Amino acid sequence: MNNDMQRAIKAAAILRYGMSGPIAAMDMAWQQRHSIAKIGLSLGFLFLLPVLFLCLLPSFVFGGFQMTDVWNDNAVLLQNIQRYQTAVWSAIDEAHDALLREIESIAEDDEEITIIDEFHYSSVNATLILCEYSAAKGTDKINTKEIRGLIKAHRDALFSYQKTSGHTYRIYYIGDAYFADYVFKLTEQQKKLAELYAANLELFLYGSQFGSVSAQVSEDVLKYGTLVKKCAEKYGISNFTDVINAVMMAESGGRGTDVMQASECPYNQKYPKKPNGIKNTEYSIEVGVHYLADCLKGAGCTAPNQTEKLSLALQGYNYGNGYISWAIQKYGGYTEANAQEFSKIMQRKLGWSRYGNPKYVSAVYRYLVFSSNGKWGSPFVGKDWNSRVSSDFGWRTDPLNGKKAFHEGLDIAYPTGTKIHAVSGGVVTSVVYSKTGYGHHVRVDCGNGVTVLYAHCSKILVTKGQSISTGQPIAEVGATGRVTGAHLHLGVLVNGKEVNPREYIGG
After folding, report:
1. Helix 323-331 × helix 307-319 angle, to 10°
2. In this predicted model, what pLDDT tens digit does every residue of 141-167 receive, in sequence order?
3. Which positions ≥6 away from 504 have C-beta within 8 Å?
């Protein structure tokens, strides 16, 4: 019996029979987590769950943290996962953008080209790629710079293109299998270990409820995680740590001393009330979180997924001076239009040339990802879209060639220019302008492996990488691509497989 197996079995025995008490048992399991994960392939410690669950997560999740840190704080693990996911996505996206630039550079100056590009983030199983990386390393001493470097070294191999006909270029992604064989060069045993890691990580991420909002922010912001958590708990908004991180990102990117730009908040009693006035980072976070808690209370926002109330609270954080009560009394809540109006009122009142940022909500939402629970919203808010469905999900006769074909979404007919609303929050992962196929279309990653496609648009109102919320106008109905008339083609994909959108969207 090898040493790994002996150590893992010892840890398992302590956990099962309590030989040294529960804390000592968990600590022993933690120390031997890599050994346990390795032999778990053949022994399967089902009787140890959920105690050993964290031990069977991939090593990049832990990043050198102590056992007590991660055992008591899921946020530590989630922040680490998010950091590595961002590293994978951005490195692959850079390779994709490089190929697009290459195609544009070889096209003749007067050539109007069409690019057929179905690549988007759901094309990439970032979780599996990360777990393969972890299986290859076998240690916690790994970093985002390293994984980005590994992927970038293979940039030229990840994407290719073919000029199909005329001025049409089709882009191909090599697929995730490439990473195991050529980037990380895994053995068969390591591949199985990576699959074990991935299964546990998917369960950790999506099999439990850690909230419906997450933040995509810089390392400079994430380093204040412990302090943010402490202040959030102190002021009763512990479920808003991701929102706080997004606010900090929008305000300062985590740089400087007044990271929350809180010097003009009413709770600042130590420093000048002017921009960047606070000269102590901890005090800035304390004051900023305290005031944000007041704004959330004033807006009646008790959860981050209450986007209408959250928007009101965020604009109130930026404006102060009674904006929240004014917006509720006059309009019933926040809109960007009334944010503009309030800014002009305060400019006249104070004699200033500008006041605050009327687009502050969008500035913060750029760093937030909203995942929906249960039924989603309507693609046409306030309209009876069900009565306008021209083609349902499933087999049909293709209207262009008369042949039997499977229709992978819902066609909803409205006139060109009709606003299309996001049925779920998420991140815009691709914006494509094309004269063929889906025409001008948008894809949104909604989390949990779910992607929404909005196709045949006449106009697109969002940009790649933008975070959006449910109900937000993101495009306008059109007749671009392969169509017979103006309509929205709405598609929902779960882990890359098309499903009936009616199972998700609301009325």
Report:
1. 130
2. 777 888 889 999 998 999 998 887 777
3. 375, 376, 423, 424, 450, 492
Give the rounded distance of the alpha carbon of 106 from its chain centre. 34
Q: Give dist(CA 386, CA 46) in Å, integer.
A: 47
Assigned token pair, 371: 């995942």
- Output the six-digit token pair for 151: 């992927």
- Using one digit for the tens of pLDDT, what is the confidence trace for 81-117? 767 877 787 788 888 888 888 887 776 655 667 777 7
CB atoms within 10 A of CB 500: 15
Residue 34 CA to residue 488 CA, distance in Å, equals: 49
Strand partners, 115: 169
What are the backbone dihedrals phi and psi of residue 139, each rounded to the nearest 5 degrees, phi first? -155, 160
Using alpha carbons, list the distances in angstroms from residue 110 to 126, 239, 241, 322, 478. 38, 54, 51, 55, 26
Q: How many other C-beta atoms are found inside a 10 Å radius of the C-beta of residue 424? A: 25
Give the pair of three-digit tokens for residue 95: 């390779």
Cα three-residue angle 426-427-429, rounded to 5 degrees: 135
Q: 110-140 burial by CB neighbour count: b if 16+ within 10 A, else e?
A: eeeebbbbbbbbbbbbbbbbbbbbbbbbeeb
Q: Are 171 and 157 in contact (CB under 8 A)?
A: no
Structure tokens at 157: 């191999």
pTM, rounded to two decimals: 0.43
Instruction: Label residue 468 left, alpha or beta by phi (over 0 means left) and psi (-120 to 50 means alpha).
Output: beta
Tokens 């991935």 belong to which residue? Answer: 198
The Cα–Cα gap between 377 and 452 comes to 12
